[in-house]
């Protein structure tokens, strides 16, 4: 198992998984249980990741994402619940936050944008799944708001990582997607560009990295506290899963964060 590790300069460990060596749409490494992979392969990969992180299987939290704007706080009450109740609460969740040390939370993606947030001073960590629908719904801002309201974080202390996802060059969209961003108030001149097509026409492309970066800045995150991996999953599909390349029945990147203090 190979991980893309991010430099956090603190006791926060942040990473994304590679596709791994293996044939087929699920490659060598996939821990996402709802994308059509076999239970045995998912369980094997979870075991390998937990061993690498030094945690138990029940300390690895992955929500069942549905492109919503819902945020769930993983607290001690949640941890005390039986697995069936935990799984019920994780349905339809696209961002998770916790203050519990040695608990790994994360999101799964295959072109959508994973965003990791952390306040090292308070030991608060968060993971956000920001596809275009979640980005339009300002899920990253809503996660930051929850961090501030529930855990009393200051936006000036929060740092962010925009992990591998599809780039503007590869993210062609229809006019309805462009209009959704425009109606939501995004500065389209900063996140959208028309690219030529093979038929001589032009299509809109959206920069999801920049759209999430700008909404974080607008919400008080310092520019210098935001890092972007700059890896396009569509272009680098041999290393990272890309649903636009493989279809939805394929593996997912897991982008996780854990407070190892």
Brief characterization of the structure:
The chain is an alpha+beta fold and 261 residues long.
Quick one: overall form? globular
Sheet-strand content, in percent, reads 25-35%
Going across the major beta sheet, what is the strand order?
Answer: 4-5-8-7-9-13
Number of strands: 14
Number of helices: 9
- Indicate the radius of gyration in whole angstroms: 18 Å
- Quaternary state of the chains: single chain
Structural class of the secondary structure composition?
alpha+beta
Order of helices and strands: EEHEEHHEEEEHHEEHHEEHEHE
What percent of residues adopt helix (DSSP H or I)? Answer: 25-40%
- What is the averaged pLDDT score? 97
> Distance between the terminal alpha carbons, to the nearest Å?
24 Å
